[in-house]
């Protein structure tokens, strides 16, 4: 059996007025924010699901149910820390993470270095890639009604 485990994560949240926009643990100035039970951090949720999937653990919705008031407006970085602790307790380390943020607006590029810094600190690795894409004005994301994120993670048993 290989010591390597790959995982994939995907998430989408609706963009609405009256919410803060938090992506990758960074608050991004914008007139709208993501709707969700927690802080709706779409990138962190995709990374969490990729980590859980790679480790063969139940998904984010099972671990942190949105019916549980404990997770109302929860800081997703705190959830990521919990998941990373689980991964470590199973004796995995992160080899690398690749991810996409898919948003028509705002421009994500200027925030990527800060997001990377926050995630690197939590996950003890610099091997994190974050790419920013738009949807060319197509579908709900392209119309500015939602933001999507995708992540893949490679774990290594130590
Ligand atoms: Zn989510």
How is this structure best described in words?
- This protein has 158 residues and is of the alpha+beta class.
- It is built from five helices and seven strands, in the order ββββαααβαβαβ.
- The strands form two sheets. Strands 4-1-7-5-6 form a five-stranded mixed beta sheet. A two-stranded antiparallel sheet has the order 2-3.
- A hairpin with a 2-residue loop joins strand 2 (22-23) and strand 3.
- It starts with a strand and ends with a strand.
- The structure holds zinc ion (ZN).
- Residues 11, 13, 36, 40, 42, 45 line the site of zinc ion.
Quick overview:
30% of the residues lie in helices and 32% in strands.
* Gyration radius over CA: 15 Å
Describe the sheet with the most strands.
Answer: 5 strands, mixed
Low-confidence stretches: none
Q: Give the strand order, joined by hyphens, for the main sheet.
A: 4-1-7-5-6
- How many β-strands, per DSSP? 7
State the helical fraction.
25-40%
How are the elements arranged and paired?
Elements: E1 4-17, E2 22-23, E3 26-27, E4 32-34, H1 42-55, H2 60-63, H3 76-89, E5 92-102, H4 112-123, E6 128-133, H5 139-142, E7 146-157
Parallel strand pairs: 5-6
Antiparallel strand pairs: 1-4, 1-7, 2-3, 5-7
Helix pairs in contact: 1-3
Structural features:
alpha+beta; binds zinc ion; globular; 5-stranded mixed sheet; 158 residues; 5 helices; 7 strands
